[in-house]
Specification:
- The structure is a single chain.
- With 99 residues, the protein is mainly alpha-helical.
- It contains five helices and no strands.
- It has a single domain, classed as ACP-like (Non-ribosomal Peptide Synthetase Peptidyl Carrier Protein, Chain A), CATH 1.10.1200.10.
Length: 99
């Protein structure tokens, strides 16, 4: 997936992660890419949980220094698209399954 990053798929997954955390807080929010992080009312720990969940989902790590600069959901989407594009794609021999 890394070389062919599907931004729509990343966007859907990021939006889903934010919806999930809002639901656990008892908020029925449906964030869009232009929704500001502040409008979601998330505490910093909750934002970190969303980022950690997405890192686990995509098997990438994002630069923690970027977290303080996130202003909107679109920034999170862009951060993960960039991280996925920078992640080397496995070679054919690494993808082989030994049976």
């Amino acid at each position: 997936m890394q070389a062919n990053v599907d931004e729509e798929t990343v966007q859907r997954r990021v939006l889903e992660a934010f919806r999930d955390v809002c639901e656990t807080r008892g908020q029925a929010m449906y964030p869009e890419p232009d929704t500001s992080i502040g409008a979601l009312g998330l505490e910093s720990l909750q934002l970190v949980e969303v980022i950690f969940e997405l890192e686990s989902c995509y098997q990438v790590q994002v630069d923690e220094e970027q977290l303080a600069q996130l202003e909107s959901v679109a920034d999170v989407i862009e951060m993960f698209v960039d991280a996925l594009q920078r992640t080397p794609q496995p070679t054919a021999s690494q993808r082989e399954v030994i049976t």
